Structures are given as C-alpha cells and as structure tokens.
Predict the structure.
Amino acid sequence: MTKEIILTAEDFGWAKKINEGIVLAYDYGPITEITMCINAPEVEHALSLIKNKKYNIGLHLNITKFKPVSEHNLNSLTDEKTGEFKKVKTPEDLYGFLTLANKTEISKEIYAQFDLFKELIGKNPSHISSHHGVHGDPKVLDTVIELAKEYKIPVRLPIWTRENFNDFVSNYAAETILKRNKIKTTDKIFINIFNDDLRENPTPLVDDFVKKIETTPNGLVEVGCHIGFMDKEVLYATSLNWQRVKDLIAIIDPSFTELLKKNKLKLVDWSGKEKKYKPERGIIYAKVNYMRR
Amino acid sequence: MRKLIICADDFGMTEGVNEGILLAYKSGVVSDTSLLTNGLATSNAVKIIKQNKMSVGLHINLTSYSPLSPVNKVKTLCKGNRFHTPDLANWDFSFLNKANPKEIEREIYAQFNFFRNKLGFLPSHINSHKCEHGDPSIYKVIEKIAIKFNIPIRIPYWNFKPNYAAEAELRRAGVIMPDNLAPVDFYEGLNIDLNTIDVFVKSLPEGVTEIVSMPGFVDEKLLSVTQYQWQRARTLAIMLEPQFKEKLKKANMKLISFNDFRTEKIKELKL
C-alpha cells in the first residue's frame, strides 16, 4: 500500500500575498487542496484569483479571529467593543473560550460560514477544517458532523493543542466520533510541512519532511502548508511571515517532487484523485521577461 | 569606539525589495543602502530615495541583468543582451579573464553617471553586486572614481572571504574604507539573527564595521531575478523586531551611515 498525501495550503484569504503564493503553488506545484477562511480580510482578492478555474477548496471554519459572518447576536463568542471574535492567544484561552461559548451560537455561525462559502465559491467545500483546530471540541464538532453527513463532505482529522498553536497532538474521542459517523477523514495529519518550530528554525527543510513521512503509517495523510509571499500586510497580519516564503520556495522546487517520488508518496486530493503536474524550475529562474529592464 | 554601518544592498531590484529596505531604513536599523542602476525597479527606488532623503551608495553590477551601455559596446561582458552570469555554485568568475578593460570601465562609468544624473549627488559609497570589485580589472576603475571624489568603497571580499591583495592595494592608494566587513551569509542569510546579534556585535573589532544585509519583501517577481529569496524576508522580519534594535543599543554600538563616515574621514584626513 502506498502512502497518499493531501497537501493543503492554509490561510487562503488572509492576505493578498498569501493568496498569490498559494495559487502559484497549486498551479505549478504539489498543492492538492486549499482551505479558505471565509471571514478573512482578503477573501475578495482570493476569489478574483480563482475565478473561472477549478480548485479544490475547503472551508476553514473560523470562530477565533476576525468578525463573524452570521447576522445573529453572538454574545458568547464576540468582543463587545470590536464586534470581532474574542481573542484567543494560548491553548488555555481556547479551552476557556469554548467552555463559555454558547453551542447554538457556534452552530449558527458555522452554518452562516458554510452558506457564505457556497454563495461565493458556487459549490460545496471539498472538505472542512478549522482555525486553531476548534472542531476537535465536541461543541463545534457536532455541527460539523451534521453538515458533513448531509452534504457528504470529508473533515480534517481532529487534533488538539496543549502547549502552543504550533504543537498539536492527537484527539482520540473526536477522531472516533467522526469515524463512527462514517465521515471521510485521514489517518494522520501534520500541520506544518517541514520543521514544527517554524518560527525559530531557519534551516531547511527536506530532511524534516522525510523523517515525518517515514514515521507515518501507510494510508492517507494530510499535510498542512503555511505558504505565501510576503509584504507589509503579511508581516503585520501573522507571526508566520518569512517562513511562508521559505516553505513556498521549497515545495515548488523540483527536488521536492523528486523526493515524493523517491519515497513512493502519491499526491491526492480529498476525492482521492492523484495530482499530476510538472514541477517547473522555470517558475523560479526562467521568466526572463521579468528581467528585462 | 566601535561604530556600525548596516547597509542594505540591492535597492532597485524589485518594488518589494525597495519597500522592505525603506521600512528597515525608517525604523533606524539600516543606516545605508546601495542602488542597483539596472534593476527591475530602479526608477521606483530613485523616487523613494528622493522622497526620503536616504544615504545611498552605488551598487555596481557587472554580473546580472542587462548593461546600461549599448550591448555592442560592452560585448565581452555580455552573453546575448545580458551580462554573463558567473557560476555561483563554484564562484567561477573566469569570464572576467576575457573581459576587455575598456568595456569594464565604460560600463562602470555608465552606472556611476546614471546615479549622479538621476539623484543629483554623489554616492555615499561604492560596492558591487557579487562583490566583483574584488577583481583587479574592476577595482582599478572604481579606485579612480573613489580617489577623485573621496567616495568610500566596501572592503573587497571574494566568495564571502577576505581578499587580501585587493584590500591592500585600495588602502595603499588612499581609498577611504571602513575597518572591517561582516559579509552576508549568502545561503542562509544568517548574519542577521535575533538571538545572536548582540554577541556578534560585541565580538567585532574596534573601529567602523560594515554589516552587509539584504532585507526585502518577496513576491513572484523576485523569484525570477535572484536566488536569494526567503532570506530577504527573514532578514527584514528580524530587523523590524523591536528586540533587535534594543540589542544593538545595549551593545553600545553607534550606528552611522556612509555619509557620516565619509564626512568624518574627510575631516580627519584633511582631504
């Protein structure tokens, strides 16, 4: 049995330069899925990039950043002053936030994000995932399962975080609930493609990925990638900034594709379809028209 | 007394690089920058320099993109209508063996005059894109300009290592140069590191040290013009961390520009 990998680009819609990097890596590189925050600031720009083209786009449910989409009153979820979701900085914050959150309000917001996604993209999401992994909490998961069952949508394997938002561990009960409801998910998920201490470690790269994959059982694996270009907007919007550029460049390099082949890793999307593409070194060096004065 | 010049290279490479350098310059971490006269976004850079009254030097480039001179006048430097690109993996610049010194001189003057005409002042210093001014046929031309106008030159290195004869010859000729150079680590961009910058700076010898850096934002355009890519984003992000500036301050380092350095030297040497 070969190992199959879904390579998902995270944070579509957050910033223009993130959007551009993601689309580039989907068009010319190994990305097989994109996950979109429908309430992020640059959703409109993201939509303009994917217009008239076919992309596998999932819904990245988000109830911990930016403003809600729902028109209902979501007192238990939002900050009175800003109207945005309450700030969640640590895993403890997240647990506290979800404990106090009203389940009906969560459900209303999830449906609103789902409906808005369908309206803007024109089809059902290819899969459902969530920001900060909140669907690993039963309060969120129940509604996600409702949607997934009704529309036959796969759901990202639930995980949970203890130390910080770069360090996730498995989440048995949530996994089991998904599986008993016969919802398609993966056998394993990595939330970063290379090193997990992304914020600190500047040294690449590929060895980390190989190690990760070697320790992975056969089956279907999802790997999340935080990729993108960087400008002022990205720099101030997220603590992962230059790291996105580094990972983007690493995965569109042909050597990454060779690595996948050598390790008998098959790139697939959530429907199981294999991704075929030609890694173009060209994308990096050969666009000579740019270089003309 | 130890003083530091933190210079950001490649101003003019792309709009994203320009914007990044300006941000680092305004935040007070970058004290000087050097202008590519044949970059993709040189005219954008010229505009920014004028608007912000920056201290800026000339980044001579004889190894990438196209020459300012008509190609048929600098044929021995070119392949097609672009400069010969050296084999960087082996740091092989042997194409310079066949370059005509007159053509080298012509192109260097073209870039120097472009700078003066567009900006209306002299460069704060002169350096080069791949530090190719460590090559005798190149530094001899730059030396003439430097002596005539009292313009400082970056200490010549070769493949990121000291280049004794070049440095000795320039110093003996009376060219103004800082005392030390901390070159960029080309492959990792790690000369600028948040955790170690204070230790690094404290380990520097006395006198004026120039730290070379290449901060910048990164977009698709940049990928096609340089192999030094995410490293620019990383350098920039680190420079803009408040902690970075604090550490420099704590290390008691005075940050000066090449203009400051030049003025001091001219006074000191009564030039």
